[in-house]
Automatic annotation (TrEMBL):
Residues 130-157 form the HTH luxR-type domain. PROSITE patterns: HTH_LUXR_1 (PS00622). Keywords: Sigma factor, Transcription, Transcription regulation. InterPro entries: RNA_pol_sigma-70-like, RNA_pol_sigma-70_dom, RNA_pol_sigma70_r2, RNA_pol_sigma70_r4_t2, RNA_pol_sigma_r2, RNA_pol_sigma_r3/r4-like, Tscrpt_reg_LuxR_C, WH-like_DNA-bd_sf. It comes from Rubellicoccus peritrichatus. It comes from the Bacteria. Belongs to the sigma-70 factor family. ECF subfamily. This is Sigma-70 family RNA polymerase sigma factor.
Amino acid sequence: MKDSERQRIFDEWLSKHKGLMFKVVRAYSFTAHDREDLFQEIAIQLWNSIPKFREDSAVTTWIYRVALNTALTWTRKEKKQRDTKSSLIQSEQILTQTPTFKDNRLEWIYEQISQLDEVDRSLTLLMLDGFSYKEIAAIIGITESNVGVKINRIKKRLIEKIQAGD
């Protein structure tokens, strides 16, 4: 593949699918700096992976898979490097912001998603983006029935947290 063709594909995919990449970034990173880093990592991985795209799945599905796998790898690496200082900085940033009620709900939702294990977190993001159980199963690598079971369990846990006032 020529570099010019690769650049054209990359630019097209980035402009069309930047939103879904940001959703993955938002779920796996918490500070503005981390979000920038993770987005760059995903973009680099997308660039490197373009020649491997075989068109046996939808571009959106494939980009999600690249983004999720990159985010999972990045998260594991960051957990090893994270220290108390970054937690304090994050807490300070959150406390100094004045979010609206809607922002608070959205923050709460992302906080709950961030506390899920890696598979459940990925599954939740895909579900929120309207992917079918079949598409989610293909992206994550589990069966459709397992997708349904996991979604129901996640919903149940979130409902319990809402009712408990967490």
